[in-house]
Amino acid sequence: xxxxxxxxxxxxxxxxxxxxxxxxxxxxxxxxxxxxxxxxxxxxxxxxxxxxxxxxxxxxxxxxxxxxxxxxxxxxxxxxxxxxxxxxxxxxxxxxxxxxxxxxxxxxxxxxxxxxxxxxxxxxxxxxxxxxxxxxxxxxxxxxxxxxxxxxxxxxxxxxxxxxxxxxxxxxxxxxxxxxxxxxxxxxxxxxxxxxxxxxxxxxxxxxxxxxxxxxxxxxxxxxxxxxxxxxxxxxxxxxxxxxxxxxxxxxxxxxxxxxxxxxxxxxxxxxxxxxxxxxxxxxxxxxxxxxxxxxxxxxxxxxxxxxxxxxxxxxxxxxxxxxxxxxxxxxxxxxxxxxxxxxxxxxxxxxxxxxxxxxxxxxxxxxxxxxxxxxxxxxxxxxxxxxxxxxxxxxxxxxxxxxxxxxxxxxxxxxxxxxxxxxxxxxxxxxxxxxxxxxxxxxxxxxxxxxxxxxxxxxx
Amino acid sequence: xxxxxxxxxxxxxxxxxxxxxxxxxxxxxxxxxxxxxxxxxxxxxxxxxxxxxxxxxxxxxxxxxxxxxxxxxxxxxxxxxxxxxxxxxxxxxxxxxxxxxxxxxxxxxxxxxxxxxxxxxxxxxxxxxxxxxxxxxxxxxxxxxxxxxxxxxxxxxxxxxxxxxxxxxxxxxxxxxxxxx
Lengths: 461, 181
Description:
Strand order of the largest sheet of chain B: 2-3-1-4
Helix content of chain B: 40-55%
Number of strands of chain A: 0
Strand content of chain B: 5-15%
Radius of gyration of chain A: 23 Å
Mean pLDDT of chain B: 86
Order of helices and strands of chain A: HHHHHHHHHHHHHHHH
Distance between the termini of chain B: 17 Å
Oligomer: heterodimer
CATH architecture of chain A: Up-down Bundle
Number of domains of chain A: 1
């Protein structure tokens, strides 16, 4: 197919499971994808799903509203466990976002054609996950109405943020990530918005999509600059996505807390982020292709490739766990050795074993092609991995903070109702945004699918 | 300007396949036309060469944005920590540059990306809600499955009837004039 294909993708397999179902033309691809937004009746299932997600989003608003009234005392956090759910959830959500950028930027640079039908909603997923992630540090500040103090602006106080602190690096990394993800997503959408403008029959739709399309007319000179900007964005987003979780891991590794102060954190955080992100893409893609009959566009080949990426990143994560464990013992540092013992035998040991089960043991099933091509298995697996990755952050944060250097500083942590309400609430917000997105915007890039039609038709000649 | 041309934007022709349009664009250029534009539902390979397009400036603008963001980002941290509000922490250097790298890096990416996107839009003259080409009959197909070329009336070689005949000679369908308003 293309130059950048991994060797395990033999030509034979590609012929058997194509990236695009046979017999598609420019018009059929356009019709099928734009019909979801323009002409199809909104199904009852959509309304039920949306309302459910919207209600859970309401729970989040109540939880945050109550938090603003009472303060962070309604959560389970205490001294010494000052981070708790808020930071666990922040790291989890921001990690989920990473797969979207990986698919849209890195696979684009590697010329992987199978990315085409999944990149749009994976990018949307990134944006929504970053939105969910951004809520947590904000409400965790305790006085979120002063959150703008984290940005350098000329204030009457005459001081600046502490640029030597990883927490400020985080502010810059996450806000840059959110902005660049939005730009990338929007630039990709422009030609498709023009398609929707030209195909919609009602005046309001024409006006709304027309405004959003910025007057795109598909001029060849415009396309040239467009392609160049898109390629550059992909090139810029690639180091960015690697830097974001690296900076997130600095929040931990720059601190001297046992179990955090280790150099393996940046690579293993990035791998973990991609791992959970691909799991989330599968969690969304499997119901989406079923509900809208997109099996021709999101083929078995896509699902299988994503499963392979999950397997590979899962093994990197397993490597990270092993060396985290090994280096703690090998260092001979008694606090680090003690932390390992706490993970294995301490009060939170069940979480550690559950994490090993979810992230390392169960995903080994993906070695078998029969498992990788079984949609139900993949769907369940994707949820297990996401649970596992959440547990990983819980183990890192809670076990280290409850077992500090001095026994007098030890503590216990248990989340309250409001912690759970906020976490589940953000899941509601995420699902709600996904529902809105597939309803009003093309979930698959139409312009890129047309290019794929040209390329795949050339191959059959 | 001749009076009867003033309300004509150009002559448009339609093709079914991208290769036909690339071929036509080459022929149009070879025939001596300078002001013409192709409209396609996706970027067509070989188009920039066929139309002999100039090198585009988006990469240069992006580079400028990246340099601005990187130097500005570092420079600001330097200024804030060394001049604006120096804090002496046990005699450690005020310009603790390794700690400034993450923010410098993020600012480089942010500015380069913003310059790439808004530079691209600005060079393309977008947003532009209206353009005469939208008056063309059947132009809505340009965003679905048809490939158009429009020779503009401002071209010196433009002659309504002859240019139309020329396009038909290139096997273009639905050759018609496009009005300015």
